[in-house]
Amino acid sequence: MIKIAPSILSADLADLAGEISRIESADFVHVDVMDGSYVPNITFGQGMVKTLSRLTDKPLDVHLMIERPEHHLESFMEAGASIITVHPDATRHLHRQLGRIKELGGLAGVALNPSDPSVMIENVLDLADLVLIMTVNPGFGGQDFIEGQTTKIAEVAELVAASGRNIMIEVDGGVNSKTAEKVRRAGADVLVAGTYIFRAEDAEAAIRTLRG
Ligand code: DX5
Ligand code: ZN
């Protein structure tokens, strides 16, 4: 069964509790942490994760788009993260950071930007619990899905299958009623969507559509 992770980047933050209550059937809550350096935008930090952990029991899927994520793994876990995903080019020792997330009791994710090849994850599949494939350039919600990325989803699915490990394949960026089907067909297990879910009149109906 496909999992759905609404991204609170597109939620109405003036009514965070109300927005969380609109996504009862979601599996995770996706939290986009941006530092204005790794990506051009600045968003949330540990405080947001802590607030969300008071508002929901759903696993918090924390996507770190920050330089040197190793300095913040512990504090994000303490704040209530369940999954922490890092970008390989934001840290010098990716394998070590994934191991650290697991030591801290989290699930460890590794993210690929649109320009990153699928082989970048090959040597960390012994530790990864999730591979996040970005289908937009990270930094903003509401961007258009980059079509060429579906091939990479299928490549990652093959690498994951060959590893023999239980690793989730998550797709993030421009996921909507038009793009979800090809993403699912390419082998995704978790779909992240911000605009499509939170800007919908009926968020639950949007979640059902994405599940297919
Ligand atoms: C982009 C973020 C995404 C973003 C997706 O850098 O990683 O999670 O919230 O937003 P939509 O679904 O609007 O493309
Ligand atoms: Zn994200």
Order of adjacent strands in the largest pleated sheet: 1-8-7-6-5-4-3-2
Main beta sheet = 8 strands, parallel
Individual helix count = 8
* N→C terminal distance: 10 Å
Structural class of the helix and strand makeup? alpha/beta
* Average pLDDT rating: 98
Spell out which ligands are present.
D-xylitol-5-phosphate, zinc ion
Gyration radius from CA atoms, angstroms = 16 Å
| Order of helical and strand elements | EHEHEHEHEEHEHEHH
Tell me, briefly, the overall form: globular
Number of strands: 8
**Can you tell me the residue ranges where pLDDT is under 50 for at least 5 consecutive residues?**
none
Q: Tell me the strand percentage band.
A: 15-25%
Describe the protein's architecture and organization.
Helix 2 (46-55) packs parallel to helix 3. Strand 7, helix 6 and strand 8 form a beta-alpha-beta unit. The chain is of the alpha/beta class. 44% of the residues are buried. The protein has eight helices and eight strands; from the N terminus they run E-H-E-H-E-H-E-H-E-E-H-E-H-E-H-H. The protein is 32% helix and 19% strand. It has an eight-stranded parallel β-sheet. The longest helix is centred in the last third of the chain and has 15 residues, at 149-163. The structure holds D-xylitol-5-phosphate and zinc ion (ZN).
Short structural summary:
The chain is α/β, with parallel strands linked by helices and 212 residues long.
List keywords for this structure.
212 residues, alpha/beta, 8 strands, 19% strand, binds D-xylitol-5-phosphate, binds zinc ion
Topology:
Layout: E1 3-6, H1 16-21, E2 29-34, H2 46-55, E3 60-65, H3 73-79, E4 83-86, H4 94-103, E5 107-112, E6 130-134, H5 149-163, E7 168-172, H6 180-186, E8 190-193, H7 195-198, H8 203-211
Parallel strand pairs: 1-8, 2-3, 3-4, 4-5, 5-6, 6-7, 7-8
Helix pairs in contact: 2-3
The structure holds D-xylitol-5-phosphate and zinc ion.
